[in-house]
Design a protein that fits this description.
The chain is of the alpha+beta class. It has a domain at 3-115: Aminopeptidase (3-Layer(aba) Sandwich). It has 4 helices and 7 strands. It has helices at 13-23, 39-46, 95-109, 126-135, and strands at residues 3-7, 50-56, 61-69, 78-86, 116-122, 138-148, 154-163. A hairpin with an 8-residue loop joins strand 3 (61-69) and strand 4 (78-86). Helix 1 (13-23) crosses helix 2. The structure holds coenzyme A.
Length: 164
């Protein structure tokens, strides 16, 4: 299935909600449970400093990535708050990698410069951690029992960073 990457627009809100709700079905993958993915959440993603969508030829939004430049000024070279989601029926086809490559390319051209991209992944999401390692992210630490899953189990967060 071919797809293109473009900046998200406000008209993508409902498609982003549907995408994140679908991707959130896997426990521990995304921070939000499906019922926590709201139109306001999607509006916030679209309003982030960078929000890209992967779109198939028929308009189906199969992936999304967004992130924010950190504040205050001391952190302004840092891109954080990163979230990425690919529709479960489209995972493993290169969409997530392509979204990341486009985000990194945007960050390299950002003004003022972005010198660092950071993210966190649940320790129970080793596929995502492997993808981030392949993209060049380094392991920077671990937050013990940062998340609590619906079944009551705690899960660590793996902190990762990429210096540009
Ligand atoms: C993580 C995610 C964004 C990766 O996007 P993707 O399009 O599936 O990834 P790509 O096809 O570009 O790359 C494949 C790699 O992604 C990783 N991966 C993570 N979850 C995967 C999945 N469900 N299926 C296939 N690959 C997955 C693997 O490292 C895989 O590499 P491998 O073949 O060596 O195992 C996507 O699987 C997803 O949305 N998952 C659910 C939400 C999530 O976990 N978000 C990240 C929160 S930190």
């Amino acid at each position: 299935m071919s797809f293109t990457i473009r900046p998200a627009a406000s008209a993508d809100r409902d498609a982003i909600v549907a995408l994140h709700r679908a991707a959130a079905v896997t426990p521990g993958a995304l921070a939000r449970a499906p019922e926590e993915v709201t139109p306001a959440y999607a509006d916030g993603a679209i309003a982030a400093d960078i929000c890209l969508v992967a779109v198939e030829s028929d308009g189906f939004v199969c992936g999304e990535i967004h992130a924010r430049r950190e504040s205050p000024a001391i952190f302004a070279h840092v891109l954080g708050g990163l979230t990425v989601a690919v529709h479960p029926e489209r995972q493993g086809q290169g969409i997530g990698s392509t979204l990341f490559e486009a985000l990194i390319a945007w960050a390299r051209g950002a003004e003022p410069p972005i010198l660092r991209i950071e993210l966190a992944a649940g320790a129970g999401n080793p596929g995502a951690v492997r993808l981030y390692e392949r993209l060049g992210f380094q392991h920077e630490g671990r937050q013990v029992a940062r998340g609590r899953l619906a079944d009551g189990r705690f899960e660590d967060d793996i902190l990762m960073g990429l210096l540009l």
